[in-house]
Structures are given as structure tokens and as C-alpha cells.
Write a structure and sequence with these properties.
The complex is a heterodimer of chains A (about 600) and B (about 70). With about 600 residues, chain A is mainly α. Chain A has 25 helices and two strands. Chain A folds into two domains: about 425 residues, Sodium/glucose cotransporter, CATH 1.20.1730.10; about 110 residues, no CATH class. In chain A, strands 1-2 form a two-stranded parallel ribbon. Chain A is globular. Chain B has one domain. With about 70 residues, chain B is an all-alpha fold. Classes of the chains: A mainly alpha (about 600), B mainly alpha (about 70). At the A-B interface, helix 1 and helix 10 of A face helix 1 and helix 2 of B.
Chain lengths: ~600, ~70
């Protein structure tokens, strides 16, 4: 990195921290800190809604998946996000926002009972720590691999093996400072800043890359149809790169995982709860869906281009390609961190380090100046993802765990203090998770696994809770436990092809082999959701029905339709929903 | 409470735009071989500056219109 790149990075840090400092004085109550005072305009919430999810798993993981699976990765957006974002905005937000619950677990307590909330709060808290640890790990690994700090370390006479640890601490401290000072407001405003920076840093990359490989038609000619079609070959798992058939994809990803994440995950729902009105809350996920629909062109496309370019010798400036055996395209071979030797797969072929697809592209095309902007964009994405997790964690910890079970009835000032304290220890736990994340090749696969266990059954609970008034607390609780157990059991009894029993599955006994890890994850989710759905209904029918008077505002059939603010026709939630769905269908047809 | 995010957004992007434009104008043209011979710093700097100024303009306009005594943000 040269001086100009440092200048750009420093400018970004100054603005991010500046926003935190500016907002510090308006953090007077716990509502200001945890819910941004419920005063944020819809478009800001919408971009934050999308940006909070735009962490390491998006930019690095989606680029990696683009290189590995091709444009079919866009399923994670077009069927794996958009329908669920539309659903949560149109159908679920009236209950989240209307119930005045301060968190998703708190909604579960209002609708069901204390134990359902406790289960969700605790599992969610653990999951956010993991996700934020993965973000942090990605920042640190990236900084280490790009040799950003090597010069500084050499000058100071420090051992360069400490760069990983140093990078973890520095990224944690920046996120800590601005979330500690300004709470959710600070996280949301920074997410908007980060959103635009990510666009600014990646748009030229896609443009230059596409121009270089001769446009989309050039990419098609180089990579062939398996990389450039999202639906072709989905009839059978063996005829597409994902190794999943259309049913597993549509049900597992498009329905269970996607709705489980976008409709129930407090990390994103919190952004909508901070909106200033019901209509702003409903429009939040819909506004976020517009950029979401187009993001494959920013984050997946560079991965495809990276694999399509002619293989390059090692870059002497950065030494990114470390081994003598080059990778594929400009993606280097995965190197063992301790021995420095290339890592081999089961057939003795070198494994590609797909997570370096996007960083390699940045170094390949960006001269000093724009390189600083590109690296800043990467860091911005990591930080927005991490801050999203941290703000969701401190809210759930303070309201749903601390206030409910450890110290109820304290002053609001005390809970505000606890919010800040939990921001600190949340980040400390994340650092622990960051070191754990070091052991996985593709960050995406691990995240999918975690989501499958925890989130997959959850959407069945919310769907029944919001739309079937007969659902009981006992039913919901038993259903969730059964669903998570089913996920674990399914994972323990199946194994993806070319994997050994253990973390990848089959730790009980192998009764079924899946063609790919992704297929296994999707089907784990399907099993978990179905089990939760059936068990919740069965137990609900066996237990006493909840009193209807207590469910007003929480269940669809007992809640009056939300009053519409007078909005222009194109700004109404329903119009936005139709536009975004039409756009997504069109994109699927173009890239079928 | 809160801030108009367009203000810091506009300021940051205007500054980034100016930095890239100046650097693009003075830097050696051979630097841009890797970016296919395009002076991406200059070109993209102009785009960022326009975006930044637009955001500042929008923030200013809404600050003016909210000077009426009823609304405060």
C-alpha cells in the first residue's frame, strides 16, 4: 500500500469514528442506544437492512462461490433473499413493529411464552458471536495475505507472524468504538456509508474485469455454460456446479434458509424496528431488496472473472501467489499456514484458495488510489457485518437475557450501561470465535451449517405463530427443540460426496450420501423446518389454546390491517414489492 | 435525534473524489497499464465527486425546508 491508499483508508476511519462521536450525546436512554430512538427514515433503514448482512460472507464468500460455482451463486440473492425480504416487509413487519417488541426474542415472549424466548435469545446470542468472529477472521486473514502491514511491521522490528493478531485487534477496536459510543444509530448510519463505499469500490472492478474478458459474451465463451447459467442443469444434482437439484434449492435455500434468515433474524429485523413509523418499517426490507437484487453483479461477477483470466505468475509487489504451482485464473493455490506447502485434495490436486478471488482481483486491476478505495470497501463490508452482529447481540443480551433472567427491574440508566458493557464482552467473545473460524476453507459453508441448525426450524415457529392463532407456547418450544434436533440428526447421518465423517457430517452413521455439501445443508434445513412445523402443530393441538384477547397485534387474523400513510403510488409497500419481484423474475430469465 | 447521513456521506465522497482526481491528474500514465490503460483514478474520482456534491445538495435542501418551526429532526 502506498501513501495515497493509506490516506483514503484513514479518511474512512475518521468518518466512521466521527459518526460514533457525533451520536454519543444523543444516547440518553436505552431506547436511543438499542433501537436508535425509533426515528430513522425508511431509506436509511433499508440500506442498513441490506448492508448489515453485507459482511465478510458476502463480499469474500460470494466472490469465492462465484469462482467455484459460477453465476448460479446468484440464487443466494434472487431466490435466497428477495422473496423473503418481500414477505417480511409485507406480511410480518406489522406484527414486529406493531407489537412494540424491542427484539425478535421479545416478540416470541409476547406471542408465546418465556421459555421460547429464552431458547431463541440464547441461541441467537451464540450465533451472532460466531458470525462476528467470522467477519473478524476474514479481515485479519485478508490483511495478512495482502501484506498491508508488512512494511510497518518490518520498520518497527516486529515479528510478521503477529500481523494476524494485530489485524484482529485493530478491526475489533474500531467497531467497538463506534458501536460503544453511538449504539444502533451509529451502526445504522455507518452501514449506509459502508454501503456506498462498497459500491464505489467494487463497481470499477466489475467494469474493468468485464471489459478485459470481452464482456458477458467473452466470459460465456471462456467459462462455458455451466458457469454462466443459473437454472440450466438444475433438473439433477449431477448436471450443475452447485450439486443440488431444483427442489432442494427452491425449498432448502429459497424457502427454509432464506425465510429463516431474513424474516426472523434479529440482526436484520432490528434495522426495520428502528424505523420511524410502521410504513417506514414495512418499506425497510423492500427498499433494501432493490440493491440486493443487483449485488450479484458487484460481488459474484469478480469471482467469475478471476477464474476466467489467464493464469498469472506471482505478483512480485505483493507475492500473493506464494507457491511454485500456480492456481487457476488469478486465484492462488491454498497454502498451509505453518508449512507453506500447497494443500492437496483427496486426488492429490492442489486446492484453490477461493476466498482470495476478490482480493486478487483488486490487486490485479486497481492502481494505487483506486486500490485504497477497493481495500477500504472490503474493510467497510467487514465492519458493517460485524457491527450488525454486535448491535444485535448487545440488545438481545441486555433486554432478553440480562433484564429477563439476571437483573429485572433495574433503572434504564443501568441497562444503557449494560448495553455498552455487553458491546465490549461481545467483541471479546467474537475474537475467540475468529480464531476458531481459522479452520474452515469456505466461510460460506460453515455459515450455512450454523444457520441450518439454528435458523431453519425458526421460520416454522414464526409462520405458525403469526398466522395460526391456535399455536401455543408449548407447541412452539417443543417444535423448535425438535427442529434443531432433526437438523443435528440429519447432519450426523448424511455425508456429502468426497468428505470424511466428522465436521462435514456422518458423525453418527452414514445412511445417505449427498452429491455436495450445499445439497446436504439445504436438506438439513428442509428436515429441520418440516419437523418443527409438524411437531408445533401436534403439540399445540394437545395443549390449551391461548386466550385470543392476548394475541391482538401479534397474530394475523386478530390484528386490524395497518393504516396506510398517504404515500405516492410508487412508494407504497405493495408497489415496491411488485417492482422488486418483477425485476428479480426478469434477472432469472436473462441469466437462466 | 440523529443526523442527516447525507451530510457525512456527501463530505466523504466529495473528499474521496477530489483526492482521486488530483492523484489521477499527477500520477504517471504507465501506472494505468494494469487497469487496461484507463486512468481509473481520474474517471472514477469525477463520478464520486459528482455523487458527493449531489448528496450535500440534497442534505442542504432538506435542512432548509425543515427550518419551519413545526418539524425538527
Amino acid at each position: 500500500m502506498t501513501g495515497i491508499d493509506w490516506l483514503i483508508l484513514a479518511l474512512y476511519f475518521a468518518f466512521v469514528l466521527g459518526i460514533g462521536v457525533t451520536l454519543k450525546s444523543s444516547m440518553k436512554t436505552s431506547t436511543d442506544f438499542f433501537l436508535a430512538g425509533r426515528a430513522i427514515p425508511a431509506w436509511v433503514c433499508g440500506l442498513a437492512f441490506m448492508s448489515a448482512n453485507l459482511g465478510a460472507q458476502e463480499v469474500i464468500g460470494m466472490g469465492a462461490s462465484g469462482a467455484k460455482y459460477g453465476i448460479a451463486t446468484s440464487h443466494f440473492y434472487w431466490i435466497g433473499a428477495i422473496p423473503a425480504m418481500v414477505f417480511v416487509g409485507i406480511f410480518m413487519m406489522p406484527f414486529y413493529y406493531g407489537s412494540r417488541a424491542r427484539s425478535v426474542p421479545e416478540y416470541l415472549r409476547l406471542r408465546f411464552d418465556e421459555k421460547t424466548r429464552g431458547l431463541n435469545a440464547i441461541s441467537f446470542a451464540i450465533m451472532t458471536i460466531f458470525s462476528s468472529g467470522i467477519s473478524m477472521y476474514a479481515i485479519a486473514k485478508l490483511i495478512q495475505t495482502l501484506h498491508v502491514f508488512d512494511g510497518v511491521f518490518q520498520r518497527l522490528g516486529l515479528n510478521s507472524s503477529w500481523i494476524f493478531d494485530f489485524a484482529i485487534v485493530i478491526s475489533a477496536v474500531v467497531v467497538l468504538v463506534y458501536t460503544f459510543l453511538g449504539g444502533l444509530s451509529s451502526a445504522i448510519y455507518n452501514e449506509v456509508l459502508q454501503f456506498f463505499l462498497i459500491v464505489a469500490g467494487f463497481l470499477p472492478l466489475s467494469y474493468l474485469g468485464l471489459k478485459n474478458v470481452g464482456g458477458w459474451s467473452g466470459l460465456k465463451a471462456t467459462l462455458g455454460p455451466s458457469f454462466t447459467h443459473s437454472w440450466r442443469g438444475m433438473g439433477h444434482a449431477s448436471t450443475n456446479r452447485l450439486g443440488v437439484e431444483w427442489f432442494g434449492l427452491a425449498m432448502g435455500l429459497g424457502f427454509v434458509l432464506s425465510f429463516g434468515y431474513w424474516c426472523t433474524d434479529f440482526l436484520v429485523v432490528q434495522r426495520a424496528m428502528a424505523a420511524k413509523s410502521m410504513s417506514a418499517a414495512r418499506r425497510t426490507p423492500l427498499i433494501g431488496a432493490f440493491p440486493k437484487m443487483l449485488f450479484p453483479f458487484l460481488v459474484i461477477l469478480p469471482g467469475l472473472i478471476a477464474i476466467a483470466l489467464p493464469t498469472q505468475p506471482a505478483d512480485p509487489r505483493t507475492g500473493v501467489v506464494a507457491s511454485a504451482s500456480p492456481g487457476k485464473g488469478i486465484i492462488p493455490v491454498k497454502v498451509d499456514a505453518t508449512s507453506g506447502a500447497p494443500m492437496l485434495d483427496k486426488d492429490g490436486k492442489p486446492q484453490l484458495d477461493y476466498d482470495l478471488a476478490v482480493p486478487s482481483m483488486l490487486l490485479h486491476y486497481f492502481p494505487p488510489g483506486l486500490l485504497g478505495l477497493g481495500l477500504t470497501a472490503l474493510l467497510a463490508s467487514f465492519m458493517s457485518g460485524m457491527a450488525g452482529n454486535v448491535t444485535a447481540f448487545n440488545t438481545v443480551w441486555t433486554y432478553d437475557i440480562y433484564q429477563s433472567y439476571i437483573r429485572p427491574g433495574a433503572t434504564d440508566e443501568h441497562y444503557l450501561w449494560m448495553g455498552r458493557a455487553s458491546t465490549v464482552f461481545g467483541i471479546v467473545f467474537s475474537i475467540g470465535a475468529a480464531y476458531m473460524a481459522n479452520h474452515f476453507n469456505n466461510i460460506m459453508d460453515m455459515l450455512q451449517l450454523v444457520f441450518a441448525f439454528v435458523n431453519a426450524p425458526l421460520f416454522a415457529t414464526f409462520l405458525l405463530g403469526m398466522f395460526w392463532k391456535r399455536t401455543t407456547g408449548h407447541g412452539a418450544f417443543t417444535g423448535l427443540l425438535a427442529g434443531t434436533a432433526a437438523a443435528a440428526l440429519h447432519h450426523g447421518m448424511t455425508l456429502p460426496a468426497e468428505a470424511l465423517s466428522g465436521i462435514k457430517g456422518g458423525w453418527l452413521t452414514v445412511v445417505h450420501n449427498y452429491p455436495s455439501e450445499m445439497a446436504q445443508n439445504f436438506w438439513t434445513a428442509i428436515f429441520a423446518w418440516t419437523t418443527c412445523f409438524v411437531v408445533t402443530i401436534a403439540v399445540s393441538l394437545l395443549t390449551r389454546a391461548p386466550e385470543e384477547s392476548k394475541l391482538v397485534g401479534l397474530v394475523y387474523s386478530l390484528t386490524p390491517r395497518p393504516e396506510e400513510e398517504p404515500l405516492a403510488w410508487y412508494a407504497k409497500p405493495a408497489s415496491l414489492a411488485i417492482m422488486v419481484v418483477a425485476g428479480t423474475v426478469l434477472l432469472n430469465i436473462i441469466f437462466w | 435525534m440523529g443526523i442527516d447521513i447525507r451530510l457525512p456521506l456527501g463530505a466523504l465522497f466529495s473528499l474521496l473524489g477530489v483526492i482521486l482526481i488530483v492523484y489521477g491528474a499527477v500520477s504517471d500514465a504507465t501506472r494505468y497499464q494494469q487497469s487496461l490503460g484507463i486512468n481509473v483514478n481520474l474517471d472514477w474520482g469525477i463520478v464520486l465527486l459528482i455523487f458527493g456534491l449531489l448528496m450535500l445538495l440534497l442534505a442542504r435542501r432538506s435542512a432548509r425546508s425543515s427550518h419551519s418551526p413545526v418539524r425538527k429532526s
